[in-house]
Structure formats: C-alpha cells, structure tokens
C-alpha cells in the first residue's frame, strides 16, 4: 500500500511541482569571471579548472574539494555556452598541446571566451536532499584579455583627464625613453590645424608601439588596452588617437575642452570619447555587471624578476582593475536583479616556480600589494581569499645536499626541454627597496609544461582548495 501511494500520479505530480519550486528558490548558478593581467596564466588556469572538474571522478587529486571527498559528486559535463557571440573556450586545443611529446603551454587569451559546465551532485543538507534525487549546478566561466580590463577606469575620464594621466606616467624616465619616437612625431603637429587622417593614423601607430614596448619591459598599466590587443577593431579609426604632450599643450596654448572644430585636438578628443562611449561602455554593461564570483590571477614572480618599476606598476594596475567590478554581499533577489561579486580569490600564480617553504611568503607578498584595495572590499562585505596556486604544475620539489647541508630544490624542464634542478631563492614578504634590484634582484625560473604520460588530470597546486572556496557553498 505505501509503495502504491508513492507511485500514484497525483503524488508524482506534487513531487515534481515541489521540486521545480525548490529549484527556483535554491541558487544553482554561478557566473565566474577569471581576470588578470597579461601573462598571469588565465588560459592555463581555466584549462586546469575545467580539467579538474571533468576528471574529478577519475584521477584528479582533489582532497580538499568537499563534494568529491564526501562522495557526493555524480559527474561533470561541458554544455552549450550561454553567450553564442563569444568564442568557445579552446579547452580541447589546450589539452592537445599539453599532451604533445614536446608539450606546449595553452595559447594566451586573444579575446573573450566562455565555457559552461553542468555539475551534477547530491546535496548534503537542506530541503532539496529530500525532494530531489540529485542537483545540477551550472558554472559559467568567462575569460577576458587582461589588456582590455584596464580600460574600464577610462569611463570616468574625459580626454583632458586622460592627457594629464599620460603626462604623469611619462615622468617615469624609462617610459619617457620608450616614448621618444612617439613624442617627437606628436610634438611637430599644430593641433589647431584641420586634422589629416593619415597623420593621425601614423602617430597613433607610434603610440601603440610605445605601449607594446612598455609591455615588453614589464609595465602593466597600459591604456588604451585595445591598442595592444585590438581584436575586431584592428585598423579602425576609433583606435587612431593619442595624448597630446603636455609641453605642446602649453606651447600652443590649446583649449582641450573647447578645441577648434575639426582640428587635430578636436578629432583626438572626439575619438577618445567615441572609444569610451561606444567600445568600453557596452563591453562593461554587457558583460562585467553580471558576475557573482571572481578570480584575479597575479604573476608576482615575473614582476619581481623585472624590477622595482614593474612591481609597482602591477600594484597600481591591480587597484585600477578591482575598482571596475561590482562588489557586495549577494542574496537571491540581488543576484536576480543586480548581481554583485560576493566571493573573490586573489591567486598568486606559478607557485610551482618556488620551493614549498616559500609559498607562504608569496601569499604575504600578494597581500601586501592588495592592502589598500582590500579595505574597501571588507567594508562591502565581500568574502576574500588569498592563495598561491599552480594551475598546471610544471616542477617537482625535493631536497638536495650542498656543502653537507640539505636545501629545498625544484626539478623541471627549461624552455629547451633540458632537465634542471635549482633553488630559486627566497620570496620577499613585501616589495624590497629600489636599490635591492641594483645589488641583487630576482631570477625565478621558467619551466616547460609537464609530461602527462597518459594521465587525464593535470597536476596542480591548491586547485582543489580554490574550487571549494568558489563553489563549495553552492554544493553543500
């Protein structure tokens, strides 16, 4: 009799109705933004994130991912991404490169890409464990070029303000040297004369060359970002503008805010305004305001390798980047009508490039860079976490005897595929003074990708802890 009751059509219809109601009330969707500046390892990170989840029931080593350690994970599959105008994240291509005999790192981000995962699991508590056999969490992961992120603060500037900011940056002697060719070409223009489009194109090209040279020297705060990575706007007039040297503004007595119609100054200001209004603003409104979780990847080690100026430029760039997102505590209603990021991970990447005993120092170094920005996040009620990770671990740690003393070392392959064993040195807990680099400096290694030798899951450091922080609460 009891069995027939539970199979009665009316009971089954009631159960289905309760299930649908519960699923509407239970948050089963996470939109994750993976951000970071150029070279921070975003593509490798997303490749590993997808790989750890898809292979979680096979060989993946994820002891701190609670839904797996509690045997509640049923399976994970890739699904059709929500925004069909984005590139499909090239997970399969990245894995194919990593499985080559001479493995290659995944290609760097060249535009927006996206991947959607469906994660099926059993709940550990709550109403749904009684009315649903299993639950599915939808995880959307979106990757953005780091170069584009730093354009967002330009939304709060006009052309004159941007000119002033560029003038401040050119007080840096190294930047001024890199800008010499651009400055020479920009200084011979009469900005009150009628604009010549060919001149604008040529000088804008020199300004782009200056930004690329800065990037090659380790600078991160570079605007406009689309000059470096134009995407679909390559050769478009909207990218053919540049700042007017401050000395020329004074010499020619220019009124930047009310320039002569159709003059160089007028066209430059107009193109800057068009760039902010028709390129940056739609990009921000259409994509950035809908995230509720975020990972910011930071390559502290490369910044240390490049020197004092590079390190401080990275710190300044991080402050700019974080100000461009919506942060604050989230609940069901706010997520439906005004999503805000309520969990944020700061991840120092490439933790496999230092010995395990130095990873705590790496996290402290990252925290020292984020000290000011973090105060506002705490006030806004955002849960934050700092960690050191290796999305795809390329080295093994061990001990070596040197002069009768055991020291920690790393073993991996260099860019030529040759095996190397070394001690990379200590990691400072805060930025050293400028003269440290002239006396000693840093030289952390670069490794080739690991040989997978038939393994399905990628080796990593702390990706399981990061996964549990990002989505573990949605799967409890």
Can you put this structure into words, describing what you see?
The protein is an alpha/beta fold and about 475 residues long. The chain folds into two domains: about 260 residues, P-loop containing nucleotide triphosphate hydrolases (Rossmann fold), CATH 3.40.50.300; about 120 residues, no CATH class. Helices cover about 40% and strands about 15% of the residues. It has 21 helices and eleven strands. The strands form two sheets. Strands 1, 2, 3, 4, 5, 6, 7 and 8 form an eight-stranded mixed beta sheet that branches. A three-stranded antiparallel beta sheet has the order 9-10-11, with no helix packed on it. Helix 10 packs antiparallel against helix 11 and helix 15 runs antiparallel to helix 16. It is globular and about 70 Å long. It starts with a helix and ends in a 5-residue tail after the last helix.
Total beta strands: 11
Give the N-terminus to C-terminus distance in angstroms.
Answer: 34 Å
Rg (CA only):
26 Å
Separate helix tally:
21
Q: What is the CATH superfamily of the largest domain? A: P-loop containing nucleotide triphosphate hydrolases
CATH class of the largest domain: Alpha Beta
Q: How large is the share of residues in beta strands?
A: 15-25%
CATH topology of the largest domain: Rossmann fold
Biggest β-sheet strands, sense, barrel: 8 strands, mixed
Question: Percent helix among the residues?
Answer: 40-55%
Briefly note the structural class of the backbone.
alpha/beta
Model regions low in confidence, pLDDT < 50 over at least 5 residues: 19-25
Outline type: globular
Number of self-contained structural domains: 2
Arithmetic mean of pLDDT: 87
CATH architecture of the largest domain: 3-Layer(aba) Sandwich
Protein name: YcjX family protein
Pfam families: DUF463
